[in-house]
Structure formats: structure tokens, C-alpha cells
Amino acid sequence: MQTARGTTLTGARWRPPLLLAIGVGVFGYAVDQLTKLLAIENLTPGRPVEIIGSVLQLSLFRNPGAAFSMGTNSTVALSIFAIVALLGCLAFGLPRVRSMPQGLALGLLLAGIGGNLHDRLLREPSPLRGHVIDFLQLKYFAIFNVADICITSAAVLFVLLSFRQPAQADAGIASQRGDMGAGERL
Q1: In the annotation, is 32 catalytic?
Q2: What pTM was estimated for this model as a whole?
Q3: pLDDT tens-place string over residues 152-175
């Protein structure tokens, strides 16, 4: 469908927040996969490499579960959940992105879900059962990857965005569309 401002697949215009979401999603996914490839090629499981003393280490771990290795016997369910979440973000989230912060948050979420879903679908031992590559380890905390950082950052940003006043959000949407602000309506 062709519109006055651009072409879209869903009828929504190609506007800066939407482009930001897509760009951040693709870039974050690429960084996640590149860093996982480097970790696989350069790290040996059980032999951590200190980056900042023992506080931050690089340590290769293949995780069949979710955060903190929870759900290690639920890899298929986690894979299906990730597929549904990614499709939901694409189908319902992207068309509703109205601000640059929303675009950034959604892009980070897409990158994180996509990066870990890639591992679950395409890595050993089999599709839907693939283990996620984790390699960043914080002392006394967890071992994680770039996709996890993206998901966590998106969650924090969505929470911060939820504290915005509704009138501010409405005014931002209206100004992007060229409408009158929420307080200027008759």
C-alpha cells in the first residue's frame, strides 16, 4: 500500500519511531549473534577469562533454560513463547509505536527476543530445543548475553515510559501527526 509519506506493509506510515524500532532491532540482533559467534570461537566452557578482575568474566555457557537457568526442562515451551512474543511485537507493537522512546524500547525487545530465539531454533541439540549461548558473567549474579541486555533494557525503558503523564503522551502523539495538542481540542 502506498501512502503520501511512504510505503508500508500494514498501512502505517514509515515514520521515524517505526524506523528506529526496526533499526535497533536489526542492529541489536546482529550484535548479539556476532558476540555469540566470537564467544563460541574463542572461549572454552569452564575456563573463564577475566575482563574486570573477577567482577566481569567471559565464560561460555550453553543455557537450555531461561534467566538464571530456570526452566531447563521447558526449552520447547520457552521457544514457543518466544515465537509468540516476537510475532506479537511485530504485529501489534510496531504499528503502535508513536514516539522515539517507544521505538527504542520495542527495538531492543525485538533484538533480544530475536537473538535468543535464533539460538533456540538453530543451535544444538535441535530446533525448538536449542541452547542459548551465554558468555558474560557478573560475580555473584548471572551469566547472560547481549540479547538478555536488550530485553532487560527494554523492560526498564517500558517501565519508565509508563510513568509519563497521559496528557504528555497524547500531546506527543498529536504533535507527531500534526494534530492539535490534547489541551487544544474543542
Answers
A1: no
A2: 0.81
A3: 999 999 999 999 866 555 555 555
